[in-house]
Amino acid sequence: MEEKLVFTRPECVVDRATHYCPGCQHGVAHRLIGEVLDEMQLADKSILVSSIGCSVFLYNYLHIDAVEAPHGRAPAVATGVKRARPDNFVFTYQGDGDLASIGMAEIMHCANRGENLSVIFVNNTVYGMTGGQMAPTTLEGQKTTTSPRGRDVLHDGNAIRMAEIIAQLEGTSYSTRVALDTVLHIKQTKKAIKKAFTLQNEKKGFGFVEILATCPTNWKMSSLDANERIAKELIPYFPLGTYKDIEQGAK
Question: Would you state the torsion angle of the CA atoms of residues 118, 124, 130, 132, taken in this order, to the nearest 10 degrees?
Fold first, then answer.
């Protein structure tokens, strides 16, 4: 029987193996971004700003121009890039330890100013690259290298819900939370990325896409169990949905 090719690798995604651990969903997010860039014909004018974390080498996997920012400073660097090159398409790709901890000031002020750029925020509730420490999004009771008995909210506070916070800022045009644990959710994630990119392309302001993803290595789980954790633990605390859309109204 003749085989039928039902999809191909996006043109702007580099044909090479990634450095990610087995079961890590950064690669899925990369592919979705690549598909959207191809479909919107944005690759030739795009400038990616990646920050420190597991995704620091994203520029090795996309055929687009890129700038590497210091830890947490991607929104500030992206602001400078966009203001210097307003005709270029500019987006950041960041993790939760990067964006919601050392970079909290940068993301808040970037959104509040309504910078015309897009932010892809991958939330796997732990510092990935630097040793599995507790992150601002680590859930209550979750064990990490710096919370070996589990996060204690009386001592450490609660996990931060970034999509909701960003939605409250006047400069935000779009803030949503999606996930990568099912085919349906992956399709919704691609739609959210495309929405944020479209708003920037139409000069309608700051777009924020939070993506719930796995980290099997630092969660100390199998890939399957890590994927199931998204539905069982992450989504109940970090509800999926759009929290602000200037074209549709808030959630």
Answer: 170
Per DSSP, the three-state class of 142 is coil
CATH superfamily of 26-245: Thiamin diphosphate (ThDP)-binding fold, Pyr/PP domains (3.40.50.970)
Q: What pLDDT was estimated at residue 248? A: 84
Q: What is the 3-state secondary structure (H, E, C) of 146-158?
A: CECCCECHHHHCC
* Angle between helices 74-84 and 104-113 in degrees, nearest 10: 40
pLDDT tens profile 33-45: 999 999 999 999 9
The string of DSSP codes covering 47-101 is EEEE-SSGGGGGGGTBSSEEEEPPTT-HHHHHHHHHHH-TTSEEEEEEEHHIIII
Share of the chain above pLDDT 90, in %: 88
**56-112: per-residue pLDDT in tens?**
888 899 999 999 999 999 999 999 999 999 999 999 999 999 999 999 999 999 999
Half-sphere exposure of 39 toward its Cβ, with a 13 Å CA cutoff?
Answer: 15
User: Is 223 strand, coil or helix?
Assistant: helix
Q: Which residues pair with 46 in a beta bridge?
A: 89
Domain ranges of the chain: 26-245
Q: Name which of 178, 192, 188, 190 is nearest 230 in CA terms.
A: 178
